[in-house]
Amino acid sequence: MEKQNKPVYYKDYLQLNKLLDSQSCKSKEVGNECHDETLFIIVHQAYELWFKQIIHELDSILPIFAKESIPDSQMSLISARLERIIHIQKVLVEHLVILETMTPMDFLEFRDLLIPASGFQSVQFRMIEIKLGLGLKKRNTEFEGFILGRLAQEDRDLLLNIEEDKSLLELIEKWLERVPFIQDGKFDFWKEFQKSVNEMLKSDREIIEKNTSIPEEQKNIQLESLEVTKETFFSLFDPEKYNTLIAEGKKTLSQKATLGALFVMLYRDEPLLYLPYKVLNSLMDIDENFIAWRQRHALMAQRMLGTKIGTGGSSGHDYLKKAADKNRVFLDLFNLSSFIIPRSKLPVLPESIKRELNFYFSENSKIKT
Ligand code: HEM
């Protein structure tokens, strides 16, 4: 039987009747309609739509990372989807510029009608946080209680349920722990790397010591800070020291995962490591854009409210500013830059590993990886 294809009508396809009939101003309900409340609602709704898309992208990436091994063909898909999230985040930061065309006085016309509702209760925002790795339980019990206490039971249950799943951060950690080639037969990459680092630090020390243009006091400060760099470097290779850093909350990723990430960062020019490097870079972009949004939103809240408390009952700008400083998902990846050394000082990889990290053509021109 032939399929009857009903012509698709734009308005029906996008369910515009439903969508465009979903802006009900509280100020109108109380008989004092405020012009800017429509803008306030539409900006929030646009955010929720983009949050939905970010969750859609994350939900497609997480199961791939959960696999024991990720097929090469899926790495470019992951990379493309992470990049999409990055572009959406940039739009989200820009949205605030539109909302800021509303003045604090205009906002005050309807603000009190919204109490106790707040962006604080955005379940999708919390879902994104949890899926990335900022689980409620991992933050602190006070915070968990504060957030959950402001949500309806069904939303609380939903978030606690999602919290049971592995986050992107946890899956990335497992993936990085599996980075191959680091210890291959007789070749111990980390021993070679430490030799290179020692040489680099030695040459840095000589440069400081030979510098006649700075006073002795400043020289000593520079030498002390070089010692700190040295300590940081070597804590990376000492499992006991590294685990202390984890226990103190100074590191999140396991030592093995950090070393895997560092190897990818250092040998990013090798064809097989390029996509993993791009993925790590995208994760840092996502973290950075999240911070950028939090900081921008905190400033906007300050501009609108000054030192007033938020409609959700927090201390307002002060709470938001702290949230921007504290909530980092992939901070360990940023901190890897402390361990990056110049290309010229990188240990030369044995030919067998180099070959495995390269795409090459066999005699019959089939690509091998
Ligand atoms: C006039 C504009 C806005 C003001 C004055 C404002 C103010 C605030 C304040 C004071 C808080 C802290 C919680 C509270 O006590 O309510 C907050 C939280 C939040 N707001 Fe806004 N907001 C505005 C617009 C937006 C928009 C457009 C979004 C987009 C969805 C948004 C999303 C959020 C989120 C997700 C939180 C929770 C942040 C966290 O806990 O880290 N806000 N907002």
Largest sheet: 2 strands, antiparallel
Q: State the total count of DSSP E strands.
A: 4
Supply the helix-strand structural class: mainly alpha
The global form is globular
What is the gyration radius calculated from CA atoms? 26 Å
Measured as a percent range, the helix fraction is 55-70%
- Architecture, according to CATH? Up-down Bundle
User: What are the low-pLDDT stretches, counting only 5+ consecutive residues below 50?
Assistant: 365-369
Mean pLDDT: 90
- SS element count, helices: 19
Beta-strand percent range:
under 5%
Give your account of this protein's structure.
- The structure is a single chain.
- The chain is 66% helix and 2% strand.
- The two termini are 47 Å apart.
- The chain has a single domain, classed as Methane Monooxygenase Hydroxylase, Chain G, domain 1.
- Strand 3 and strand 4 form a beta hairpin.
- The longest helix is centred in the C-terminal third of the chain and has 35 residues.
- With 369 residues, the protein is mainly α.
- The radius of gyration is 26 Å and the shape is globular.
- It contains 19 helices and four strands.
- The strands form two sheets. The protein has a two-stranded antiparallel ribbon. The chain has a two-stranded antiparallel ribbon with strand order 3-4.
- Protoporphyrin IX containing FE (HEM) binds next to helix 4, helix 16 and helix 17.
